[in-house]
Amino acid sequence: MLGLRRLSGMQKLIFGIVSLMLIGLGGFYAYSSGMFGTNGGEQIFCTMEAKLCPDGVTYVGRQGPKCEFAACPTASTTPESPVTLEVMLNNEVSALGVSITPLQVLEDSRCPIDVQCIQAGTVRVKAKIVSGLGESIMTFTLNSPITTEAEEVTLISVSPKPLSTHTISAAEYRFIFEIKKRSF
């Protein structure tokens, strides 16, 4: 029958052990890479809602372990002044006609706060940007501005700060972006 033969008892045992090891390694990888959004052992699923802020232009989404809406920009913000927005991975924030959705941390080489380093390191984040000219996927580097047709967007802060004894999971990351109108 197509060259298949019966497995002996020892071959079945070895096959079973190898299968369990592969399943265990896959589960460990998924857990350690933050694929499971957990809060004290419970999985967290936030609804994909948006709240219109008092400025009538900006929308913010739910984030964090309690699925609360992100903070709106301050009411004193004028179109000419920069707006700062805090967001988590796979959540969207908007201001000044630009929407940002961080998708993936590509690099986090920041020096842990409990270690003395020769270089400070950086963070690179892949994010979806939607503005007047459409949608694109961009790579943001900490404190390096990216310009759209009318705005300048900068990743200005990433938290939490790294520790040498802790790997930051995807669910823990918080990004602060600054959006400001370009002057021509």
Structural write-up:
There is one protein chain. Helix content is 13%, strand content 38%. It has 184 residues and is mainly beta. It has one domain: Tick-borne Encephalitis virus Glycoprotein, domain 1, CATH 2.60.98. Strands 6-13-12-11 form a four-stranded antiparallel sheet, with no helix packed on it. Strand 4 and strand 5 form a beta hairpin. About 3% of the residues have low confidence.
Largest sheet: 4 strands, antiparallel
Give the neighbour order of strands across the main sheet.
Answer: 6-13-12-11
Shape: elongated
Question: What is the C-alpha radius of gyration, as a whole number of Å?
Answer: 22 Å
Q: Compute the number of strand runs.
A: 13
Order of helices and strands: HEEEEEEEEEEEEE
Count the domains.
Answer: 1
CATH domain class? Mainly Beta
- Assign the structural class, choosing from mainly alpha, mainly beta, alpha/beta, alpha+beta, or little secondary structure: mainly beta
What is the straight-line distance between the termini? Answer: 75 Å
- CATH fold-level name: Tick-borne Encephalitis virus Glycoprotein, domain 1
Q: Kindly estimate the percentage of residues that lie in beta strands according to DSSP.
A: 35-45%
